[in-house]
Write a structure and sequence with these properties.
heterodimer; A: alpha/beta; 16 helices; B: alpha+beta; 7 strands; 12% strand
Chain lengths: 591, 238
């Protein structure tokens, strides 16, 4: 075998919040841990998170209770979030957030010296009975940046071994399907290496770049989901894509929900605060799926603004210059740069924009990847050696709709949990599965295909086409016939991408090669999304269908499981058995 | 419009050269990063870094018509007069003073080394409380203008003192981060941090040229932070 092998106890693929929280945990315990990231870690997409991290630390309200946060999250998920996982996240959350403060995260502060918390959408006190809560811990409107840099700094301190600007291209499995590590390319030199490890942790983030318009960074190409699907592993609830209500119209850049938390609100072209009609109680702080749909209805009913009537406005000027500059300084900058609008004076043009992948690789609370089992009854079975945390994973704490501020909490809680679990497993003695040369060859096949391509369509053109299919056929509102058309278009794209051309085959820092490999992943995620969206014949959370407008608890109060081999959709039970509290029973979801 | 881009591939080129491209912007005031994407569609061998495309990740620092900045938040109209109108070419070069890996991609190793030297993490040897370490809004305000750094290297690579001594002078970005922890009420390694800076090079090579301030895409002021550290060192010496 001609390929170099590097061996670790554990490898983490992805240098965002989840990956670096997991690697930090393992590095602290002294195990040989490597973090492989296709960008320098502080360039990961966690850096773009703005509003904050939701957690019942009882600063804004001394009586706050993690069970109230749990209730909101279950309701927000439209009841297909797993209640054991949500319980774990909300309960462990405060400890994980205080740790971040101890690590140095520069949270904004209250007069009492505690962490500042702001209201976010879908938050309540006393199980929905006590009015709006303020539960999102914030570092101005740069919480993700502050969190990511803090975690990078702590990893430096604790001696994590970084492989920055290395791109993981494929999982390596043995003949039984046990995971042995990954193939990765050193982008700078072009060298290909086999990273061998007892534990492989995917923390590769989301895949928002399957859509033409997204708040996601250019690097969010679903590499982890792509690798899992090619390895024949299932993905769960992949039809559930969150469209964030406030992306800057045209640019797609995110404007935090914290703007509405601080008192901003949406208006249509007539200046009407329309959310009062759609969600009389929570208004602009209803759940994201509800607000995004309401905005689209306004636009479709002809009350959108601009020459094409294709957006609405986010009004902030009434908050005053001082609040805007102290609480939302980053938003002021972004609005001026990308919308040529100063929020102190005029409203920002906004439109719902693809933002977050609720689905992903199914895992338990320890991050262990779940594989397909016989039916949707019975015990979960795990993929030996594989873990997933953060946006690439589907634990599932977000179900059909994620609440704002819960993604950063998900990252730190489950990055930490996977680290703790692997640490413990390593101590007890974990098996290192050994691949054969043929296994490694198999993992190299895709890369070799691109390397030997001599003609065909170009990567940028195919990518653009894929993104427009997803945008036009699988957006905020969905319809069976339109989706069937989309599925057919993707099948055609699959054939063409399999014959596409990598013209530049040079070694050093060849970003064309990386973009080609990313295109394969975009296709895998897009196809899984399309088939799952067509298959879920109901409307729930972010998945909203004209032809099935109602939630169907009888048939679909469950996870969808996409099987990449059969390209078919199955079902998996949702967990309704939290350990310390009573089950939250599904009920009609109103805000 | 015309775009002129620094090209160098160590595998095939003996020396770098500038390559001209023609790009159709349809008269729009696009960001420089958008122009790079259009060039990349024509010529996929042209390499550059990018990630967030909104000025928070710090990947796409480069030199645009002579000035360092982030390509993703620099519209053509702000590069130089005449560029948007097509009267002057857009000229893109890698950040100065660092080794070029390929095209617009520089080796940031030296820059990151200097960052690591300032021990850029909170140090506090007292036992952590069960909740957060309390910090008043006034104490917290002292790290505003410091923690927002995105490590894009626009500042350090525009600094003549850093060009001259990139191994010994820490440079504006690292020193800004050094002060970020000196100014944090939760950090108690002040003495150790200061003693590491007390030599002729680490900090004192700053000559107040202030290029760092004029190029910082986040509007931060490393020169002021360096001044604060100087004062702390001075007080400590008395």
């Amino acid at each position: 075998m001609s390929i170099r092998t590097i061996t670790f106890d554990a490898i983490v693929v992805g240098g965002g919040g989840a990956g670096m929280r997991a690697s930090l945990q393992m590095a602290q315990s002294g195990f040989k841990t490597a973090l492989i990231s296709k960008v320098f870690p502080t360039r990961s997409h966690t850096v773009s998170a703005q509003g904050g991290i939701t957690c019942a630390i009882a600063s804004a309200d001394p009586n706050d209770d993690w069970r109230w946060h749990m209730y909101d999250t279950v309701k927000g998920s439209d009841y297909i979030g797993d209640q054991d996982a949500i319980e774990y996240m909300c309960n462990v959350g405060p400890e994980a957030v205080f740790e971040l403060d101890h690590m140095g995260l520069p949270f904004s502060r209250t007069e009492e010296g505690r962490i500042y918390q702001r209201p976010f959408g879908g938050q309540s006190k006393n199980f929905g009975e006590g009015g709006q809560a303020a539960r999102t811990c914030a570092a101005a409107d740069r919480t993700g940046h502050a969190l990511l840099h803090t975690l990078y700094q702590q990893n430096l301190k604790n001696g994590t071994q970084f492989y920055n600007e290395w791109y993981a291209s494929e999982l390596v499995k043995d003949d039984e399907g046990n995971v042995c590590g990954v193939i990765a390319i050193d982008i700078e030199s072009g060298e290909t290496v086999f990273f061998k490890a007892k534990a492989t942790v995917f923390a590769t983030g989301g895949s928002g770049r399957i859509y033409a318009s997204t708040t996601n960074a250019l690097i969010n190409t679903g590499d982890g989901v792509g690798m899992a699907l090619r390895a024949g592993l299932p993905v769960q609830d992949i039809e559930m894509w969150q469209f964030h209500p406030t992306g800057i119209a045209g640019a797609g850049v995110l404007v935090t929900e914290g703007c509405r938390g601080e008192g901003g609100y949406l208006i249509n072209k007539d200046g009407e605060r329309f959310m009062e009609r759609y969600a009389p109680n929570a208004k602009d702080l209803a759940s994201r799926d509800v607000v995004a749909r309401s905005m689209m209805m306004e636009i479709l009913d002809g009350r959108g603004a601009g020459p094409d009537g294709d957006h609405v406005f986010l009004k902030l000027d009434h908050l005053g210059e001082e609040v805007l500059h102290s609480r939302l300084p980053g938003i002021c900058e972004l609005a001026i740069t990308f919308a040529q609008t100063d929020p102190v004076k005029e409203p920002i043009p906004v439109v719902p924009t693809c933002h977050y992948m609720m689905g992903g690789i199914p895992t338990n609370v320890h991050g262990q990847a779940i594989k397909l089992s016989g039916g949707h009854e019975g015990e979960d079975q795990f993929v030996n050696g594989l873990f997933a945390v953060g946006e690439v994973a589907c634990v599932s704490v977000h179900g059909a709709n994620r609440l704002g501020g819960n993604s950063l909490l998900d990252l730190v809680v489950f990055g930490r949990a996977a680290g703790l679990f692997i640490e413990d497993q390593l101590r007890q003695g974990m098996t290192q599965y050994e691949p054969t040369d043929a296994n490694i060859e198999e993992a190299m096949a895709r890369l070799n295909r691109w390397e030997s391509s001599t003609g065909g369509e170009s990567v940028p053109a195919l990518r653009k086409e894929l993104q427009s299919v997803m945008q036009n056929h699988f957006g905020v509102f969905r319809k069976g016939d339109l989706m069937a058309e989309g599925v057919a278009k993707l099948a055609d794209l699959r054939k063409r991408i399999a014959n596409a051309h990598l013209e530049d085959k040079s070694k050093p820092f060849n970003t064309a090669r990386i973009e080609a490999l990313e295109l394969d992943n975009l296709l895998e995620v897009a196809e899984a999304t399309a088939i799952a969206a067509e298959g879920r014949t109901e409307s729930r959370g972010a998945h909203s269908r004209y032809d099935y407008p109602d939630r169907d608890d009888e048939n679909w109060l469950c996870h969808s499981i996409f099987d990449p081999k059969a390209k078919k959709l199955g079902k998996r039970d949702v967990n309704f058995k939290p350990k310390t509290v009573d089950t939250f029973q599904p009920k009609a979801r109103t805000y | 419009m015309k775009v002129s881009i620094y090209r160098y591939n160590p595998e095939t080129d003996r020396e770098p050269s500038m390559k001209e491209y023609e790009v159709d912007t349809q008269g729009k005031d696009l960001m420089v990063l958008d122009i790079l994407a259009l060039v990349k569609e024509q010529d996929q061998s042209m390499a550059y870094r990018r990630s967030c495309r909104e000025g928070v990740c710090g990947s796409d620092g480069m030199n645009m018509n002579g000035k360092n900045g982030l390509a993703c938040i620099t519209p053509l109209s702000q590069v130089a007069p005449g560029v948007l109108e097509g009267k002057k070419p857009l000229i893109l070069r890698p950040l100065p003073g660092l080794p070029v890996i390929r095209d617009l991609v520089v080796d940031m190793g030296m820059f990151y080394n200097q960052y690591e030297k300032v021990q850029p993490y909170l140090q506090n040897n007292t036992p952590a409380p069960a909740i957060e370490r309390l910090q008043s809004p006034e104490e917290r305000a002292k790290i505003d203008g410091l923690y927002e750094c995105i490590l894009c290297a626009c500042c350090s690579t525009s600094c003549p003192s850093f060009w001259w001594n990139p191994d010994k002078f820490l440079g504006p970005a690292a020193l800004l981060q050094s002060y970020r922890f000196l100014a944090d009420s939760r950090d108690n390694a002040t003495e150790e941090r200061l003693s590491k800076l007390d030599d002729p090079f680490s900090l004192f090579r700053c000559h107040g040229i202030m290029n760092c301030v004029s190029v910082c895409p986040k509007g931060l002021n490393p020169t002021r932070a360096i001044g604060h550290i100087r004062s702390m060192l001075l007080e400590r010496g008395i």
